[in-house]
């Protein structure tokens, strides 16, 4: 009797490489959810929800005018938050950045207005003073062994006092509203060939860097992104970039302040991810003793991190002063410090060190300033804004703590 073999067709899901990739991606998502390692996803979701809620309550929230104002308002705090990211990456904190921001503004105004010094030279001196103050904090922390919390708390008090001394009894110094510093937040690029050209240049640069990174990783046997993923990311970047240029172009154009801020973020991100110093900062955040055994000069890295924080605090202070066209006590009041730290943490930088990105500063400050802008449009008092920002900050810290606990449990396993 002849035996007939019936061929059972293989399931499409098993034979399809696309289905295999989908299952692998779904598994990766489940693993990240379990380990609470979601990267910037929570911050992006929080930003989207914030914008949707305020737009539903007030149609002017996502108007070109309000978004243009928002894009300039985030720069001063955002610059300071980028410096805070460097400090948080090694698991420390810098409480002096608000006072240093105020001191930079007061230093510039005092030298320029009271002593008649040229603006460009006064700007350089103000930034150098911020860098020197940061280096002093780093020296006492890294060489003397004083806790960073105590060193920077002393700096908060000392630099705030020096700021008040420079401002004098009037507590403020007004400077020219058409000079170099004022131009930082009042200059816009409205020509389409310039704005869309910059958008295209940024997109092409990202594509070329992605391909370069892919070839570099492939040559040494490291995991690398697929070509499809690179093109998908580039397309998403192009959509966001050109949409931003289009919307801002409906009001006054592309702000100079936003361009400078984005340039600082990109440069800082490349610096952290692609240089020896950046890898040493991340290694130090994973553990000082392990980094020391790996050959990292811990003291030098710590001093450099606080120097970067002090420098960017001074730069941020100049942008704050530019927005007001005067040097005042506002930066040293404490709210600037709180918002800068909150922006870094809400954006995804870990308080425990070793995990984060300078893009966290952009996401975090966008969320905080969007809440402030939406509340102002709705006429809600600042007290409610503080409570909402506090709730968002607590949520971000909870995610951070969960991620750290998951990492520790994996280490024990």
What would your notes on this structure say?
The chain is an all-alpha fold and 413 residues long. It has a single domain, classed as ABC transporter involved in vitamin B12 uptake, BtuC. The protein is 76% helix and 2% strand. The protein has 17 helices and four strands. The strands form two sheets. It has a two-stranded antiparallel sheet. A two-stranded antiparallel ribbon has the order 2-3. The longest helix is centred in the C-terminal third of the chain and has 31 residues, at 382-412. 38% of the residues are buried. Mean pLDDT is 85; it is low at 1-15.
Distance between the termini: 58 Å
The string of secondary-structure elements, in order, is HHHHHHHEHEHHEHHHHEHHH
Name the shape in a single word. Answer: globular
The main pleated sheet reads as: 2 strands, antiparallel
* CATH class descriptor name: Mainly Alpha
Helix content: over 70%
What count of helical segments does DSSP give? 17
How many β-strand stretches? 4
Briefly note the CATH topology name: ABC transporter involved in vitamin B12 uptake, BtuC
């Amino acid at each position: 009797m002849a035996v007939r073999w019936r061929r059972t067709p293989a399931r499409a899901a098993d034979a399809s490489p696309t289905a295999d990739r989908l299952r692998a991606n779904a598994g990766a998502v489940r693993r990240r959810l379990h380990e609470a390692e979601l990267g910037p996803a929570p911050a992006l979701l929080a930003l989207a929800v914030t914008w949707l809620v305020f737009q539903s309550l007030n149609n002017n929230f996502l108007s070109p005018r309000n978004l243009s104002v928002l894009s300039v308002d985030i720069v001063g705090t955002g610059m300071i938050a980028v410096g805070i990211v460097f400090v948080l990456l090694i698991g420390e904190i810098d409480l002096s950045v608000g006072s240093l921001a105020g001191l930079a503004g007061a230093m510039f105004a005092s030298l320029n207005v009271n002593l008649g010094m040229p603006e460009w030279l006064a700007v350089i001196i103000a930034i150098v003073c911020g860098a020197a103050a940061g280096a002093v904090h780093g020296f006492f922390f890294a060489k003397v062994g004083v806790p960073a919390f105590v060193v920077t708390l002393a700096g908060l008090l000392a630099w705030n006092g020096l700021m008040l001394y420079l401002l004098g009894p009037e507590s403020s110094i007004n400077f020219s509203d058409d000079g170099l510093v004022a131009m930082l937040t009042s200059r816009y690029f409205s020509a389409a060939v310039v704005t869309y050209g910059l958008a295209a240049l940024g997109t092409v640069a990202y594509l070329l860097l992605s391909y370069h990174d892919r070839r570099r990783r492939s040559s040494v046997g490291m995991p690398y992104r697929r070509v499809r993923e690179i093109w998908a990311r580039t397309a998403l970047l192009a959509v966001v970039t050109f949409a931003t240029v289009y919307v801002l172009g409906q009001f006054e154009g592309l702000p100079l302040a936003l361009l400078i801020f984005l340039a600082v973020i990109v440069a800082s991100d490349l610096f952290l991810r692609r240089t020896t110093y950046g890898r040493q900062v991340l290694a130090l955040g994973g553990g000082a003793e392990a980094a020391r055994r790996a050959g990292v000069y811990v003291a030098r890295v710590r001093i450099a991190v606080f120097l970067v924080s002090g420098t960017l605090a001074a730069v941020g202070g100049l942008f704050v002063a530019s927005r007001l066209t005067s040097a005042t006590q506002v930066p040293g009041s404490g709210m600037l410090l709180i918002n800068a730290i909150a922006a870094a943490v809400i954006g995804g930088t870990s308080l425990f060190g070793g995990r984060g990105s300078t893009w966290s500063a952009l996401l975090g400050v966008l969320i905080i300033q969007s809440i402030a802008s939406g509340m102002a449009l709705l006429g809600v008092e600042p007290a409610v804004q503080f409570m909402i920002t506090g709730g968002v900050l607590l949520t971000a810290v909870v995610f951070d703590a969960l991620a750290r606990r998951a990492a520790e449990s994996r280490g024990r396993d």
